[in-house]
Amino acid sequence: MFPIVDEEGNILNAATRGECHNGSKLLHPVVHLHLFNPQGELYLQKRPEWKDIQPGKWDTAVGGHIDLGESVEQALIREVREELGIQLQEAPQQIAHYVFESERERELVFVHKTVYDGAIHPSDELDGGRFWPIEEVKASLGKGIFTPNFESEFLKFIG
Question: Looking at the DSSP assignment, which residues form a beta bridge with residue 99?
């Protein structure tokens, strides 16, 4: 179950994943993490072809839903561990929150960033990932390589 929230993250109700992604536009919270290495390169995950939303596109290093009863921080720690197989030594910096809306859903996105210097072990949930030099990301914007969420966040908060 996902919490249904207002634009500040206050819980109003709960709904299933299917109810949140079926075009109902029920606002539900998610976490995103932009992960940099010490050289300033940005790690991106590749979404597998079997995903129902944005298959095969490059996306934010970590992105996932906040479960009912879970805090933003708990969800971020869980998603980093599940998706990248790493345990962060310090809490990532929250840099923004905003509402993202697509044809299928509305999400309250809590955006974080951190620097990580260690091995990354992408889960089977992903089709791998790699560090991208910022200039390579900028040169690839608008070419259908990245998810719209990532491009929007990169332009607003990172690039």
Answer: 108
For residue 75, give the nearest of 42, 111, 50, 100 by alpha carbon. 111
CA 5 to chain CA centroid, Å, is: 18
Tell me the pLDDT band of 88, cut-offs 50, 70 and 90.
confident
pTM for the complete prediction?
0.92
Structure token pair of residue 159: 């690039």
Token pair listed for 82: 């599940």
CATH number at residue 153: 3.90.79.10
User: What is the domain count for the chain?
Assistant: 1
Tokens 């990245």 -> residue: 146
What is the H or E stretch that residue 153 is in?
Answer: helix 148-153
- What is the Cα–Cα distance from 79 to 66, expressed in whole angstroms? 9
Domain extent for 76: 2-158
